[in-house]
Design a protein that fits this description.
The chain is an alpha/beta fold and 459 residues long. The chain has 2 domains: 8-69, no CATH class; 71-358 and 406-445, Aldolase class I (TIM Barrel), CATH 3.20.20. It has helices at 8-15, 31-48, 52-69, 77-84, 102-116, 127-132, 137-151, 168-173, 175-192, 212-233, 256-268, 305-319, 352-361, 364-377, 388-395, 404-408, 412-432, 439-445; strands spanning 19-22, 25-28, 71-74, 93-97, 122-126, 155-165, 196-200, 241-245, 279-282, 324-326, 345-350. It has an 8-stranded parallel β-barrel with strand order 4-5-6-7-8-9-10-11, surrounded by 6 helices. Strands 1-2 form a two-stranded antiparallel ribbon. The mean pLDDT is 94.
């Protein structure tokens, strides 16, 4: 079990065998010791220390050490722009949401990347997940960067805010206040090293309006406002990759005409010459987490690849974007994944499938403890007509936050089984999505800019 520092002095003691701290920054004095044990102690302190000041200091130190080590938070924007220009082969960047055991799970992803020369892969967390997994952006980024150090990964680390989503009800009540809320979260994320942000006002699309442009109005106007805000605060040398969304996931399938109406309105509302979005999320027939049947199994989804292909073609040829983005995909059948790179799809978001592997492999007593907590504390989320299996499947994602320490400190043998299964799945997906040997592209298009924790423009 790693050591958890309770004070700044204890934190300095933990670091002393491997890292020197001075007024000019940090210096790694023993890389092997850093990777063997010091980084474990540092991340466990950043996540579990009872002292907030010590926690914050640990996060700052992880960022400084990662910069020194060569694992540097980066934006994927320039790579997607190169894809839009046709300068890369076809591949689909996996964007992985880690809900629990973030440090250990991220390590498996870096292992696969190192073994297969992968450069294009993203770690992400959605606005909703930040809440129910008890992982603020600074903690999530720290766990990912610590995992890179542990595995010896050097290069760009793409960390993304997924679904920074506008709440339609709150927006109707007070549009400015809701916009402000998204701005605050975005600022917090960028300070933590999230240089990739998916803005999602697609919840505000109003299909009752007569024209496509009017339907998309609140979507494109808020995406434009957020683009300007991000460009105003992003640190010097960074162009944050911004994603937009035209179809609410789980809703009706998107069309080329909707995309063009959105882009027309969006481009009219950002200053000429300002870098805009780099990709567009569309709805193709999937639903987040899949649709559970009464017995708890998942319904088969009919996914329309033409939506990805047709909108992606226009996105690249007319607007120079990286392509389309597919959400809610981790529970899709395995045989579909090699179709995404051939469908102008530059990015795919994957979450629930990994969660399912984790729940399948934990001991029954731990699983029952979580399920009992869910039945007791989340019963108001039990929808009419759902079986217990459906209710548990839809809500067990919320078992990661309250049981975070138990997940992180699972028995080593149990943990090893989970991590081995996840690594196999990551390897399979990375191969199918054609991202093996994409390191040449990140080396070519992504410039590493080493910034301290908390960096924003002019600070």
């Amino acid at each position: 079990m790693p050591n958890i520092a309770k004070t700044i002095d204890e934190l300095k003691q933990i670091l002393s065998p491997a890292v020197e701290i001075s007024d000019t920054g940090v210096k790694i004095t023993d890389e092997q010791k850093l990777r063997d044990s010091v980084i474990d102690d540092l991340i466990y302190t950043a996540v579990f220390s009872e002292d907030e000041t010590t926690k914050e200091e640990a996060k700052k130190l992880i960022r400084d050490i990662a910069n020194e080590f060569g694992a540097v938070p980066a934006s994927i924007h320039n790579l997607y722009m190169a894809m839009g220009r046709g300068e890369t082969r076809d591949f689909t960047t996996p964007a992985i949401n880690i809900r629990g055991m973030t440090y250990d799970v991220a390590r498996q992803i870096f292992k696969v990347a190192l073994e297969n020369n992968v450069g294009a892969f993203i770690f992400e967390i959605a606005k909703s997940e930040i809440g129910y997994t008890f992982q603020r952006p600074s903690e999530y980024a720290s766990a990912v960067l610590a995992a890179a150090i542990k595995e010896g990964y050097k290069g760009p680390v793409f960390i993304q805010g997924d679904h920074f989503q506008f709440n339609a009800k709150k927006y109707q009540e007070n549009p400015e206040k809701e916009l402000e809320r998204i701005k605050e979260l975005t600022k917090e994320a960028i300070e933590a090293g999230f240089y990739n942000i998916d803005i999602d006002p697609s919840t505000l699309v109003d299909y009752s309006k007569p024209t496509l442009k009017e339907q998309q109005y609140h979507n494109y106007i808020n995406t434009a406002k957020m683009t300007q805000y991000i460009r105003q605060i992003e640190p010097e040398g960074i162009t944050v990759s911004i994603g937009a969304e035209i179809g609410h996931i789980g809703g009706k399938n998107s069309t080329v005409e909707e995309f063009e109406a959105f882009m027309e309105g969006y481009l009219e509302n950002i200053p000429e010459g300002m870098s805009g979005i780099s990709k567009i999320s569309v709805q193709t027939g999937t639903e987040h987490g899949g649709v559970p049947l009464p017995d708890g199994s998942i319904a088969e989804v009919k996914l329309d690849f033409d939506v990805l292909r047709d909108i992606g073609k226009v996105a690249r040829e007319k607007y120079g974007l990286g392509g389309t983005v597919q959400h809610g995909a981790s529970t899709l059948p395995d045989e579909l994944f090699d179709k995404f790179p051939k469908s102008n799809c530059c990015e795919i978001h994957l979450a629930t499938g990994f969660q399912n592997i984790m729940y399948d492999l934990i001991p029954e007593d731990f699983k029952n403890e979580i399920y009992s907590w869910i039945k007791e504390n989340l019963k108001n989320e039990w929808k009419e007509g759902w079986t217990e299996e459906q209710f548990i499947y839809k809500t067990r994602k919320k078992g990661f936050g309250p049981f975070k320490y138990q997940w992180w400190t699972l028995d080593e043998e149990v943990k090893a089984k989970i991590l081995e299964a996840l690594k196999k799945k990551f390897e399979f997906l990375f191969e199918k999505l054609n991202v093996f040997n994409t390191r040449e592209y990140t080396d070519k298009y992504i410039k590493l800019v080493k910034l301290p924790y908390g960096a924003l423009k002019n600070n």
